Amino acid sequence: MSRVQESHIYEALSSVMEPDLKKDLVTLAMIEDIEIDEHENVSFSVVLTTPACPMKEQIKNACIDAVRKFVPDAADVTVNLKSRVTSSGGGHHCEHERPLKNVKNIIAVASGKGGVGKSTFAANLAVSLAATGAKVGLIDADLYGPSIPTMFGLQNTKPEVADKRIIPLEKFGVRLMSIGFLVDSETAIIWRGPMASSAIKQFISDVDWQDLDYLIFDLPPGTGDIQITLSQTLPLSGVVIVTTPQDVALADVAKAVSMFRKVHVPILGLLENMSYYELPDGTKDYIFGHHGGEIFAKTQGIAFLGAIPIDRGVREGGDAGLPYVIGRPESAAAKAISEASMEVARRMSITNAERSCRK
Length: 359
Ligand SMILES: Nc1ncnc2c1ncn2[C@@H]1O[C@H](COP(=O)(O)OP(=O)(O)OP(=O)(O)O)[C@@H](O)[C@H]1O
Ligand SMILES: [Mg+2]
Description:
The chain is α/β, with parallel strands linked by helices.
């Protein structure tokens, strides 16, 4: 019989804390598939709450250290990282009336103001999460100015219909739906509010999304009727607020924050876009003001998701249908966008854990 027992591994791992959930990995039932071979080689899986967990390497190393420390007889220690994305369970909707039962988390990207980079971030967030292995969908809820078809290079592509359900288009691993795939832009422009929200409802009920870990909603700008109707009709799990550092943008953001608070949608965090421009000598020019978003987030008690620099390539990538995180992953802007995306997934997991504790 092996000197190393399964119980020793559990004991060792019960000393490893999940940094966000503040409980140990064994209590959180995050350890699976423990195997010990005849040479005392140990392997096990850690089941994360999202494949986009920004702390996965830290957790993995802490597990290896704990087993080495508490089980000196163990030879090699191999940790496999797996994930089972947690679900928000339908937000403020009751479980039985919840649309999109196969979608674990519905995340809106919103702002009070237009042109701050919502669609750019929504597209890159969706692609970044899909690249980690998550199942991701993206809905362009901007019926009057849809930009997702351009940002994914799918301007002239129409989705197919099977069994009276629309099959979402798919690109860069993301399932996509936009009014721009269905009607020409002139037709959408004449729609009135109620028609617009019924079109969004159709994106939910008539599109064959299948199982999704994250469904991202790129919302239109503002805090008007459409946004309020959408945030009440959609079973939103959380919202990401995008802003630029300018005061005027922040005043609009305050309105957006209070609107989402009123309708009880958890605010996952604030992203500051177009934060600075990096000059050729490496200095940063804070064109629209310094740290406005971060200070605002702090005073509002919401998480700060990061600062994205102004980079011509971000715009060019959007226009060319190649999200920047794929086109130039090594650039400072793409790295900042990816890190903010992982932070969104992390915040969603924390929000889900807190919600399930309250139940
Ligand atoms: N970090 C950035 N650097 C350079 N250009 C950017 C950056 N972020 C966004 N842009 C560009 O700014 C413009 C507005 O961005 P985007 O369309 O994403 O904003 P939006 O908030 O969705 O706008 P709307 O309110 O009209 O929906 C686009 O041309 C986009 O390519
Ligand atoms: Mg937009």
